[in-house]
Amino acid sequence: MTSITLAEFESFQKTGVSLIDCRPTNDFASSFIPNSINASINGSFEYMASCFFNKDEKLVIVCNAANSAESFLRLESEGHTNLHIFNYNLWNKEKLSLERVEAKNAKSYVKVMKDVSNIEDWELLHVKGVSSIPLKKLITNYQMISDGDVLYCGNGHKSMAAVSYLRTKNVFTNDIIGGLSAMLTDASDLEI
Question: Radius of gyration over alpha carbons of the chain, in Å?
Answer without folding.
Answer: 16
